[in-house]
Every structure is written in C-alpha cells, then in structure tokens.
Amino acid sequence: MELEACLDKSPLDNAYLRSEVRYGALRQGAIYGVEHPTERGIFGAAMVGPLVVPWAPDARDLAALADSLRARVHLIQLIVGPRDQVAGLQAQLGPRLRQPRLVRAEQPHYAIEDPAAIRTQLAAPIRQATLADYDQVLIAGAAMHLEEVGFDPMRSDPVGFRQRVLTMIRRGWVHIWVEDGQLIFKAECAAVTPEAIQIQGVWTTPRMRGRGLATRGMATLCGQLLTDAQAVTLFVNDFNTSAIRVYERVGFRRVGTMRSVLF
Asked: Does 163 lie in the same domain as 59?
C-alpha cells in the first residue's frame, strides 16, 4: 500500500511507524498519510494522538502534515522524530502548541547492522523478561524514566505505565540480565520490524554502574536481535556521554539526529 511504500524508503528513521503499522495502528486510525491534490501518492505520514511521530522529509509535506494536526493540537503530549521535522512541525504549529515541559533538541541516532561490527565479545546472560519479572521490570522502568525525564510515571500515570510494561513483556520486547534474583540491566524494544529493531529504556542499576555491564549487555542483545532484523537502532540524549560511549564501544554508528518535545 502507498503508506507503507512511503515509510519503507527510510526503514531506520521509520522503525517505530513501520512497527506500529504491523501491530494494527492503521486499523485503529492512529497513523495517516499526507496526500496532495496535484500529485498522486503519499509522501508523508504521522502517528497521531497524544504521541505524534512525523515522517515528512519534504517541506511541502511537513506543511500539509501541520495543517492536518491543527484541529487536534490540544491533544498532543509528545512529539518525537527526526530533529528537523519535529522542529519544523513546532514552528508551523506555533502558539497552538502548549509550552513544552521538556525539549531534547539533539538526540544522536545510532544503528548497528552487521553482527561482525559488534566489538565486545564477552557475552552476558541476557534473556527475555517473563511475567514473573514484572515487578522488577516495573520498578526499573520507573526509575529510568525518573532519571531521564524528571518525573515518576508511577505517580503521573500508574495505570497506563503498568499496562505498557505488561504489553511489552507479553510481546517479548523486554530484555533483562538478572543476577542472584536481582535485575541489574534491562533494555526494551520500542519497535520491531524485519528491517530494524529500535531499542529504548536501556538501564543499569546504579550500584553496578561503571563495571562494563551495559556494554556487555548491549553487545549481547544486539547479537541476539540481529538474527531477527537487519539493523538495531536507538537514539540517546546528547548530554548522556556515558551512554554514548557505551553504544560506540559496542559498535553503533551515528545515522542521524532525533528530537523529542514533551508538553
């Protein structure tokens, strides 16, 4: 279909949108494409609702996307996507948007596509989380969110956060390292397609940091995921230099820049 063909042109940038299409977002009306009366086809798309994830690399298509969002701009809580597109969307929607609570203006976007590029060979006992791990995953996820974003999701949206964690575990999207019954490292899949798996929520328990566990965990996880996809991607806050060092030690290469704006 035309929307999928549009997104397929940039599978690393569009891992999240392409994954949501696979999991039924089109049927739910959560993703739509941008059409133009003078040219056949779809040249831009977006996830719409409280979360907006745009894909409109051409200025014309970004303007059309902004037009389509104006009637529902009051619903927007988060915009995430390629830096220039998110910034352009902010500029075009202008004062209709609420004042941002948090702006991550520069988030380096990384990818690794070849298992041979993984530089760290010391394996870690990474496995998929099960429902028996739910409580520990929930605590770790909330701690990471508080550390990265500045507020506790168990206070702001406990029901929604619990449901998201449960859904990810049931999909097999949470990967953990447990020692002596304690979760010491986790990473989650934000998107899964045959072309790219997007990682989020990488976290090491504070008492175990500085020992190389994140490097080992990420290297092992990437080796596992690259048996199911052509690439593993992620993006990271530019000020998180320790995380950037981990990803570059593992073998990730930078492929772009993302931007996140929380309202």
From this structure: no
Q: Which CATH number does the domain housing residue 147 bear?
A: 3.40.630.30
Could you report the per-residue pLDDT of 200-216, keeping only the tens digit for each?
A: 999 999 999 999 999 99
Angle at CA 232, nearest 5°, toward 80 and 81?
A: 10
Q: At 120, list the tokens.
A: 């760290």
Task: Tell me the sheet residues that pair with 79.
Answer: 52, 261
pTM greater than 0.90:
yes
b/e 202-228 (16+ beta carbons within 10 angstroms → b): bbbbeeeeeebbbbbbbbbbbbbbbee
Domain final position from 98, 123, 140: 98
Residues 25 and 125 both lie in one domain: no
Q: What is the mean pLDDT of each run of 10 residues along the chain (263 residues)?
A: 87 95 81 75 88 92 90 92 96 92 96 93 93 98 91 92 96 97 97 97 95 96 97 96 96 97 95
Cβ–Cβ < 8 Å for 32, 63: no
